[in-house]
Amino acid sequence: MKPFIELKNVEKSYDKKKVLNNISFKVNKPGVYLIAGPNGCGKTTLLESMVGLRQIDNGEIFVSGANNHKDLHHHVGFLLQGTGLRKNLTVKEEMQLIKDLFQLEIDDLSYLKSFNLDQYYLTKTQKLSGGTKRRIMLVLLFMPDYQVLILDEPASGLDTQSRSIIWNTIKKFSKQKIIFVSDHYLNQAAQFCDYVFLMNKGEIVSSGSKEEVLNQLDKTHVLNIQANEFRHLSKSLSMIDEHFVTLHFDGVTYVFIKLPKEKNIQHVWETISNPHAVLDFHAIDFEDIYFYLTGNFTIYDEEECV
Amino acid sequence: MIAVKAFFKVELKALFREPVTIFFMIILPIILTIVFGSTFGDSPIKEGSKVLGIDLVVPNNIVFLLANAGLMGIPITISEVRSQMALKRYFTLPVTYLGYFFSLGLTFAFVSFASVLLFGAISFIFYDASFWMNGANTVIFLITCLLILYDFFIAGYFIAINIKNPRTTNIVSTISFLAMVFTSGVAIPLDSMPKYLQHAVDILPMSHSIKILQDLWINQIHYHDRFGDYLYLVLMALLFTFLVKWRRLRWD
After folding, report:
1. In percent, how much of chain A has pLDDT > 90?
2. How many domains does chain A fold into?
């Protein structure tokens, strides 16, 4: 099957700074594809390049088998980070623009009702809250039958309830569509995603299904320990996992361990000589994986710590 | 064409909700018609002439309106749409770059046309303006209006391309427009200006536009006298087309 979206060795620089470096991937199955990484890692540039808002320096972007697609904006919808709504137009008028552009026959009110947004139909967009504006933008984006949707931080800066509503809406539509989503709240975003691309400094450092990404590091838990206490705990940590991995950041040592299946958390607390030095202890998550892949890490050397 | 029509509707609605734009494009030309019409509208332009002062107000107002739409309306609208991130969003919808700006220009042209009908009707009904043009001059008048429209609209687009900040755009647009208004004879008669200033104002397009349209409107155009003015407008259109061709407007 031909991939619906394919990127081949995409590169982009601003002045002399490379922001996308050799990005390649193919996607053809419906689902939510998370593009994650910190601010400035190249997520937005990548997404904007995919929708033709930015010209790439090298490489190719194919949509439905063709690059330089003249009908790109009929196939691929884009949600930008800001709202992009005209402040003196109503929701009704914003909907009418989409209906006119795509020649759609939609009953506005019942469509909005399905998203619980019908009460805003005649409201000028400048009077809407930030969360509602984002929801309206998303609703507008779902109106045409785009095959691919690219959402740049759709839930960024919103309260928990709005984030949850937006993510649930995205998940609902992902059964028939390819949806790329960028976010820097990795763990929450990952809950709703099927596939993850982790980016750092313009490169994809890891990609795969959620399970593949989580399992690529042969560790199960992470302990955050005060850096000055780490040396005292290293012996007991090696009793739990002799190949534990550490990563030092901002006065804290992050210890990645593999807890054997037959051992539970209680075993860790009993083994560690000074549990008060442990600031946090949790099952490994996507942010830990990201941190592990992109931060400075050292494989524990027993002799060095003795 | 579908996209142009869709954006024309959107821009028209947005424009009619901007009180400042409505003031400059609809109300002010009416005020100018009433003020000038009442002051010298019924006086012949020369002794023994049947052409009245109001007959010069109509072409003056048309140029005023087109200059306002182009130099202020277009750059300020583009700047606002850009600051609301809507321009960026529009470029992800199925509309071409040219298609969107054509629809924006069409919107301002349409409102200008509606405004001309309004103050034109007032001039004819209340101040006894006359329609002097013959058929050929009427056609040339309309074509010249399109040339003037293009000149001012592309100059406005040039401002929008080169200035990203909405506040600066507003200041530059307003200064450009007012500089032309005060040096074109619309606000202060050219004859009352010092001679050197009368020559200096020829640098700006508004006085050239007014000279041509006034002569056409009263059916007294001598093309050898107005050749320089036409040449100026054509060269300006070519120059600005060249200047904007190599630089696309950025959406951010």
Report:
1. 28
2. 2
Say whether the ipTM exceeds 0.90: no
Enumerate the residues of chain A whose CB falls inside 8 A of the CB of residue B251.
Answer: 53
Q: Which domain holds residue A47?
A: 5-214
Judged by a CB distance cut-off of 8 A, whether residue B7 touches chain A is yes
Distance CA B5, CA B11 (A): 10
The whole-model pTM stands at 0.84
What's the CATH code of the domain at A64? 3.40.50.300
Q: How far from chain centre, in Å, is Cα A106?
A: 31
Q: Both A171 and A255 in a single domain? A: no
Residues of A in contact with B88 (CB under 8 A): 53, 80, 82, 84
DSSP A67: S
Cβ pairs A/B, distance under 8 A: 65
Domain ranges of chain B: 2-247
| Residues A115-120: contacts with CB under 8 Å, at least 24 apart | A115/A139, A115/A169, A117/A91, A120/A91
Nearest CB neighbour to A53, from listed B6, B14, B92: B92
Looking at the complex, report in whole angstroms how far the Cα of residue A161 sits from the nearest Cα belonging to chain B.
25
Q: Which residue of A has its CA nearest to B7?
A: A97
At A28, list the tokens.
């053809």
Tell me, yes or no, whether A156 and A280 share the same domain: no
Contact A85 B84 (CB under 8 A): yes
Residues A207 and A62 in one domain: yes
